Amino acid sequence: MKTTILKLLGVVALTILCIAQISMLWLGDMSSRNFLERKDINYDEVGVKPKIIWVNTKLAYKISEGNREYYALIHELQSAIGTETKTVKIETNVDIDYESLLRMPGIMYEYGIELTLEQILGSKIEKYDTRMVLDHLFVDVSSSNENKTYLYLISKKGADIHKITLPSKLEDHVRMMSRMNDENIASHFTAYQPSITSEKKQYIKGNVFLPLNSKETPMEYQVLKVKNEIETLSEEKKISVLEEYVNSFFGNPLLKEIDRRTDGSIIFSENMRAIVKYNPVGTLEFNITSASEAPKLSKRERLVKVKTFINECTGIPDVLKKGIYLVEAYQEGEEYVYKFDYEYNGFKLQLKDQVKQTLSLDHVLELTIKNNQITKGKWILLNIEPQVGREDDIKTLVRGYGEIVDKVYGTIKEEENRYTMLDNVECNYIMDTIDGTLSLDWVVLYNNRVYYP
Amino acid sequence: MKKCKKLTLLLTFILVGLYSSMIYANDQVIEGENIKVVAVVKDDKKTEYLESEDGYIRITQPTKAAVFESKINVMGETKEGTKLVIKLNSVDKDKEDKYIVLDTKSYEYTVGSTGTFNQLIELFEGKNQIVVKYTNEKDKTIDGKMVYVVKKESKETKESIEKLIVYPKADDLKPSSNNTAK
């Protein structure tokens, strides 16, 4: 009897194992296909955010911060690299060029600036050569199996390519690729063409992802409105709202002084140790005198400090925190300056010259580190949100990249009378006002000049 | 047992032969008119393009007779100022083996300073006849036409090819010399 029961239990166990194994064979794995069922991943848990993530099939599709998969992908990638910081090896002699890479299926992380891998992760990597920087990281999904995944670190417009082999499969990345290969899902996304695999390859440096819109396939987009809502408030309410932003800068907020100027600006100060100024055009800036903290911070540690400051500072609006990405980082004497741009739904906010002058800002957020502390900063306090309730809330962009590249290239060729290559071609929200609506249009960068064709 | 093994090997050969013809379907010859295949070798890489017989227009994508994607960015080169009309016809063959048009879409493009063009098209299921009409009044090229057919493979075909794993090792295909009859 006992033997029979044992035999029965053995058979049942084997049957269950069999079913599980067949399911894994057919379905890949047992974890949920629904990203929404995963724990919500907070932006605090990831290192430096990429500007955009591209899913590269034969065409490419954009995954921006507004997409639910954005943080899940970053988290998986950074966790996988993070577990290998003691053993990761970076191959420098890689026998692949940028064009061949972009002809492979994979997921491309695009950053706004060249960074080291340590800065992107926010943690130290053993024996890492800090001269090695990247502004793009390509996950070769075709290589991702149980044992490995290849990552390619790219910089200098594809001239420098290095490779890392991770000893694991990136499940979410493979799933994302599979989803975007499904026509029914991909049809809801705008398709993009990598310029390096296009007919315009010889006219654009490196690679940019070009939207495939035209008269027959127009690209729909949400119109934004921008306004400084603080200026619409009563004086009392204005101070109350501003205090919510500025109090965290002061040791004893109740003792701070408030100085209302005739030009509409308001200065909050505490014994000249901390000064925070509100400008009625819609900016907030601060200056703090602080003693130095030793020891001197490394590049990576400074970036962690900047990121922590942004996450914790109540003076920076949450909506700004979610859309910003690093675009400049440089040293000026004893100070280290960090500048951020802003994007909405994967489209950058392009500040026109007159707006930059009005705001006295080149980028939406600027921070300065001195003596290992964040001592200065300035950012926009403008409300930037989708326009709703009007007929023209959704507009379309019909001019395709071909027309734009031809137009700008033609203009430059006439001026310079020689063959040349454009530095960047993209669609951005053009901010030519601080109180009005913002539409999407083409922006071309050539030789540090911005063209609005 | 020996007979059983031989039968299995024979079946494997037949299956590989059958599936091979499916896998290589996209290497079939391109059907069309005023069209030729041009091979260019650069940096040890060979790339094939489709060109009109008069050499006026070149298509760099798509260049295969069959594809799996429903959306394709048609790309090519020609002279600046050329006006293009790209017509996409869903076609099938009638009893007389002639193509009949079931549905159609049309796209227009004027070629600019780079001499290159692109247009995202959405293919119909089955056979697609791509008709590229080109006109350049300045160049006195009027109503040139290049036609070719691209088949959009069905989702089922794509999935069956993706799921197919047939990697017989060389040793598996050789009959064993150690078998003894029972």
Main features:
heterodimer, A: 453 residues, alpha+beta, 14-stranded mixed beta sheet, 7-stranded antiparallel beta sheet, globular, B: 182 residues, 5-stranded antiparallel beta sheet, 11 strands, disordered C terminus
Describe the structure.
The complex is a heterodimer of chains A (453) and B (182). Chain A is α+β, with helices and mostly antiparallel strands and 453 residues long. Chain A has helices at residues 2-27, 69-82, 98-102, 117-121, 171-180, 183-186, 235-246, 299-312, 318-323, 353-359, 401-416; strands at 52-56, 60-63, 90-91, 106-116, 133-140, 149-155, 160-166, 192-194, 209-211, 219-222, 224-227, 257-260, 266-270, 274-279, 283-288, 324-332, 335-344, 347-351, 365-370, 373-380, 383-386, 394-397, 424-431, 436-446, 449-451. Residues 28-44 of chain A have low confidence and may be disordered. With 182 residues, chain B is α+β, with helices and mostly antiparallel strands. Chain B is 17% helix and 45% strand. Chain B has helices at 2-23, 155-163, and strands at 32-33, 36-42, 45-51, 58-61, 66-67, 71-77, 83-93, 99-110, 116-122, 126-136, 141-152. In chain B, the strands form two sheets. In chain B, strands 1, 5, 7, 8, 10 and 11 form a six-stranded mixed β-sheet that branches. Chain B has a five-stranded antiparallel β-sheet with strand order 2-3-4-6-9, with no helix packed on it. In chain B, a hairpin with a 6-residue loop joins strand 3 (45-51) and strand 4. In chain B, 20% of the residues are buried. The A-B interface holds A 57-59, 183, 186, 191, 193, 198-200, 203, 212-217, 400-403, 405-407, 409-410, 413 and B 60, 69-71, 73, 75-77, 105-109, 111-114, 116-120, 122, 155.
- What is the averaged pLDDT score of chain A? 89
Largest interface: A-B, 27 and 24 residues
Shape, principal axes of CA atoms of chain B: elongated
Number of helices of chain A: 11
Number of helices of chain B: 2
β-strand percent of chain A reads 25-35%
- Structural class by helix and strand composition of chain B: alpha+beta
Helix residue percentage of chain A = 25-40%
Report, as a whole number of angstroms, the end-to-end distance of chain B: 8 Å
Our Rg estimate of chain A from Cα atoms comes to 25 Å
The overall strand count of chain B is 11
Largest sheet of chain A, in brief, is: 14 strands, mixed
Uncertain stretches of 5 or more adjacent residues of chain A: 28-44
Are there runs of chain B of 5+ residues with pLDDT below 50, and where?
A: 19-26, 168-182
Instruction: Assign an overall shape of chain A.
Output: globular
N- and C-termini, Cα separation of chain A: 87 Å
**Helix-and-strand structural type of chain A:** alpha+beta
State which percent range the strand residues of chain B make up: over 45%
Q: What string, H for helix and E for strand, traces the elements of chain B in order?
A: HEEEEEEEEEEEH
